[in-house]
Predict the 3D structure of the following.
Amino acid sequence: MGGIKDKVAIIGMGCSRFGERFDTSREDLILEAMQEALDNAGLTIGDIDAFWFGSFYEMHGTALSSVIKPDFKPVTRIENNCCTGADALRNAAYSIAAGEYKVVMAIGMEKLKDNGFSGNPFNNLYRDNTEPSFGGPASFSLLVPAYANKYGVSYEDIREAMVHVSYKNHYHGSLNPKALYRKEIPLEQIRKSPMICEPYLTIMDCSGVSDGAACAILTSAENAKSFPMDPMYIKAAEIVSSSGVGLYETSYDYTTVLETEVASKRAYEKAGITNPLEQLDVVELHDCFSITEIVLYEALGLSPRGQGWRDSLDGKYTLQGKLPVNTDGGLKAMGHPVGASGIRMVYESWLQFHGMAGKRQLNDPRLGMAHCLGGKPWNNVSSVTIVGRDLG
């Protein structure tokens, strides 16, 4: 498989402020993100040849075209659980690599806070009603005892490692004016937060639901230099869907995410990455729950097996650490408007590469990764997108 390394470039990105945007409409969120991206690229909506629209709940491409009025151009609506935005970006990238269009847009949006529900509003049962119907917190809480038992980690140590994940991401979010939660939370307050999946997950272990939109404009690498801002090159865009057998196979031990392992290995190979911890400069990963982030350190090859909890305690993934992770606050503090998150994660690399990340700016980052995970640990869709400042 050849991949699309350095064939496609991002020439503009935008992101709305994430949050409980009761003062804004779906249309406002789309325009807020889209206009920033267009301004980056020095383009108007008429310069875009085709659109990929990612949304978990908006059911048709007309949800976008009725807002932006693209003059009867193609709009493809994408939905792939929490990988929706990443898949919209991936499909847009492959359309450029195929030579079908000159300039395209990928945009993700979700308006969740006006609907009167908390978390996902529905939970589809398996078609014969045999799949357990418990939701996200219960599903991911299973990782905690499985991980602790396998690696001989005490309950007190794994809880403290999870507390440090939440603290880190809220601290990063406090530096981000577009985050849902923009306040540093003291460690002791996180430790004392109420349990929701006793004894494993507290409220502070769970990411926030928010409204928001994010946007990317893409063109070919050959065409990219003609635009105002330095391009960001796509090195790999991989996505893996589960076969669903993890729930039934005794070989799955609830201490990893197999789909993420496969997606990252394929992405690393295509991007030419042999040591992600040393080669990557900024990582956004799917911290739907604090234990998920710890498990993903290992699934993505950043921490050795059984050491993710220790790396969390040691500050390996803070702004000042070996490899900063979720520098914008992640799902935990930035919020999770499902269709937008996969593009929002790439937006953080865009800001970092262009020196526009403000108080959380890193020193000369050149290679970034965005990881999304939609579903449950044993049955999910996982995506890995790798972007860089340089060709080659």
In short: DSSP finds 14 helices and eleven strands in the chain. The two ends are 18 Å apart (CA to CA). The chain has two domains: 8-114+211-233, 136-207+234-388.
